[in-house]
Design brief:
Pfam families: Fe-S_biosyn. Required for insertion of 4Fe-4S clusters for at least IspG. One of its GO terms (molecular function) is 4 iron, 4 sulfur cluster binding. With 130 residues, this protein is an alpha/beta fold. The chain has a single domain, classed as Sandwich (Hypothetical Protein Aq_1857, Chain: A), CATH 2.60.300. It has two helices and ten strands, in the order E-E-H-E-E-E-E-H-E-E-E-E. The strands form two sheets. A seven-stranded mixed beta sheet has the order 1-5-6-3-4-10-9. It is globular and about 35 Å long. About 5% of the residues have low confidence.
């Protein structure tokens, strides 16, 4: 494993408590405590790159792992980011929001130069060194 970050404050990817609470709820619904939330970046979408969310039992050697304690103060969940996706997600925040438009996971990514209206697709500057 390349990096294990014991808390969201030691990583430059932030994983909010509200996101951790929602992940814990979904894991409980799946009845599989070995699941982790994987956030990935793939080519596609209307702006060039798109975010992906999935559950994964396996932690790969090149994954960055961010562990976030839930609001109950007892349980915690893991966020996994592969090395390719990490270069586009450094300094980003993974959050879960509830509002007028419904509930959803959101990524606040300062590396995204443009985003599409759906919020799941983005582009970056070609001049950035990744």
């Amino acid at each position: 494993m390349a990096a294990i970050n014991i808390s969201p404050t030691t990583s430059d990817i932030r994983f909010s408590v509200s996101a951790a609470d929602k992940v814990a709820e979904l894991i409980k619904e799946e009845d599989n405590l070995n699941l982790n939330l994987r956030v990935s970046i793939t080519g596609g979408g209307c702006s060039g790159f798109q975010y992906g969310f999935s559950f994964d039992e396996e932690i790969n050697e090149d994954d960055t792992v961010v562990i976030q304690q839930c609001s109950d103060g007892v349980s915690s969940v893991k966020l996994l980011v592969d090395s390719m996706s990490y270069q586009y997600l450094h300094d980003a925040e993974i959050d879960y929001v509830q509002g007028i438009q419904g509930e959803q996971f959101v990524i606040r990514n300062p590396n995204a130069k443009t985003t599409c209206g759906c919020g799941s697709s983005f582009s970056i500057d070609d001049e950035d060194d990744y």
